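Bench log, entry 3. Co-assembly request; chain sequences pasted below exactly as received.
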Amino acid sequence: MIIGVCEDDPAIRRLLAEALRFAGHETVMAHDGGEALRLFGADSGIDVMVVDIGLPDSDGRDVCQALRSAGQNAPVLFLTALGATHDRLAGFGAGGDDYVAKPFELKELIARLEALGRRGRPPLSTTAGLDLDPARHAARTPSGEVLLTPTEFRMLAAITSRPDEVVRRRTVIAAAWPEGAVVAENTVDSFMRRIRTKLESIGSPVSIETVRGVGFRIR
Amino acid sequence: MIIGVCEDDPAIRRLLAEALRFAGHETVMAHDGGEALRLFGADSGIDVMVVDIGLPDSDGRDVCQALRSAGQNAPVLFLTALGATHDRLAGFGAGGDDYVAKPFELKELIARLEALGRRGRPPLSTTAGLDLDPARHAARTPSGEVLLTPTEFRMLAAITSRPDEVVRRRTVIAAAWPEGAVVAENTVDSFMRRIRTKLESIGSPVSIETVRGVGFRIR
DNA sequence: GCCAGACAGTCAGGTGGCGTTCAGGAAGTG
DNA sequence: CACTTCCTGAACGCCACCTGACTGTCTGGC
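Structure output for the full assembly:
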């Protein structure tokens, strides 16, 4: 299992790295929210994430939401020093799947992570008859399957994560490119065309609709 | 099941020998690290190993790593007088699979050993028409057989363990090199080429596909 | 001690895939 | 009709990867 850990405290980071490796898992480490967004993308292959709520550059719950809108929907376990109920609930509200307070029992944390991971890697979106398979970098429909390049995959993931909703160009760019990247407006169109072509090539029943002046929507 | 035991204390050695034989297993005994290296090699047929961390001539964790790099990848259970968490973790980091503190409950130890043995090492798959033979470090297909070096074998095993899935470069590195090893990015490519060449040389029907920017996939 | 062979790892050069851009046309909007 | 936005096809260039050869280390045999 590949586990993404976002935690600023070096001691805890190292502890988790060793313990998880020991338990037979691979880890990807991030020490702040920005790095997490870069490393934990939809095509990162990550099965479960551990995110500290109190990060130096942002709130872990915001990080989680940003990842969600980038199409990443692996389960998230929040780490926090706070034990109050409303904080716990806020964590769940932000798309979290579990919650552990610091200081935590290592064994318990790992057990919970494995439980979350065992639920299986959810196909990113079976919505609208379109499956995204991060393990294979592929998009699948009842009628066939195509392989996508990393960027294509991230873009498509960002759109399919919100079926029937209009996803703004800006959002697509934020999901598919690292923060601060400068891309010509047109680049999105080019990729969109390639994705559409690939989907057509397998006779996909779903298509990407463009909402002029706003963005795109899956249908 | 054949169980290798490396332990300097004669009393514990005798205790384990009797108990394991009683439980229906065969044992191979070593008094120190040097002997363990000679007796527990990759071709020793040993299924599981019990290694004391506090050996007269060396640290059990070093012994374990030495055995690993000699191609021995049977599961290891560490025995130690230390109970502190960081020692436990260090044992895991050295390639251990389980850990029992002395004095131990005989029943529990045997149960854990049997669990390790049963789990086996990743049942190196017959997937996709490609057989991996850990004992001989060989890859076999309907059309022939080639011998692989230890590193080649570990890499190929990492890829074949997930047929049709993209295995990331860093996953391959994690599988083929000890933790913290620094290898040039290029090294993976070199080995990959050697593996592909060997597979071709026997006219293998399966081949390793590369997914640019992500990793490799068996096909 | 010396040599031969096997294996791990590195380096430099070439290639192609993928990300990116551009220009021209089509479609939507006022 | 003027203007904007998006589609379409083609082309470019970088970088990840491939490829072949080389170096260094270790082991076993004479």
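The first strand of chain A starts at residue 2 and ends at 6. Chain A has eight helices and eleven strands.
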